[in-house]
Design brief:
Keywords: Membrane, Transmembrane, Transmembrane helix. It comes from Galbitalea soli. Pfam families: DUF4395 (PF14340). By secondary structure, the chain is an all-alpha fold. The chain has 7 helices and 2 strands. Helix 1 crosses helix 3.
Length: 156
């Protein structure tokens, strides 16, 4: 199967999801400990990392680059590569969830921060532990519904 779409080692996004899950737990812990300002700052950083992955693509995501340069050389080659489009779309879903949390928090809805962090944590946890990417599944549903197109990848 030949496509012009970039591919990624599927272990990379799972690695990044693990880092994200841990950081989101720290956000929730800080918030519950009464350190809302620190939780907010870390949550904004996580949101910026989601934006980076959404705009630059999963191949240039900071956690993906860390995986590619430090972790992957120590592992056996991947048995298969996957299309980078669904995980990049998933970064956009993460950006949406966290950005809504940031905006609502700034508007005075303080509980929006841990709630958004909780939803994002669930998605990151599912991806990192079980390899189930909710954002990727949303992408595939939108493709099947004809809302998003996959171009040549759909025909391959």
């Amino acid at each position: 199967m030949s496509t012009d779409r970039p591919t990624v080692d599927p272990r990379g996004p799972r690695f990044g999801a693990g880092i994200t899950a841990v950081l989101l737990l720290v956000v929730i812990g800080l918030f519950l400990s009464g350190l809302g300002a620190a939780a907010f700052v870390l949550f904004v950083v996580i949101t910026a990392v989601f934006a980076w992955g959404t705009i630059a693509g999963i191949q240039r995501h900071p956690y993906g680059l860390l995986f590619k340069r430090v972790i992957r050389p120590r592992l056996a080659p991947p048995t298969e590569l996957e299309d980078a489009t669904p995980p990049t779309f998933a970064q956009g879903v993460g950006l949406f969830v966290t950005l809504v949390g940031v905006i609502l928090f700034l508007l005075g809805v303080t509980l929006a921060l841990p709630i958004a962090a909780g939803f994002a944590f669930i998605a990151a946890f599912l991806n990192s532990v079980f390899g189930y990417c909710l954002g990727c599944q949303i992408y595939l549903l939108l493709v099947r519904a004809g809302i998003l197109g996959r171009g040549t990848a759909a025909r391959a």
